[in-house]
């Protein structure tokens, strides 16, 4: 499992997601950035910032 915690990128945000595939974690995180944080343009640097903060999770 892969896991992303938005607070690692946006301090104070408690949102997180978990999925087996990294691509799905990134997709969900990008959706969250648009919907919650008002990001209208998602640049490659934002995707890389998300990717670099994805961690392996022991949860199944």
Automatic annotation (TrEMBL):
Source species taxonomy: Bacteria, Pseudomonadati, Pseudomonadota, Alphaproteobacteria, Hyphomicrobiales
InterPro entries given in the database record: DUF1059
One matching Pfam family: DUF1059
Origin: domain of life: Bacteria
Protein name in the entry: DUF1059 domain-containing protein
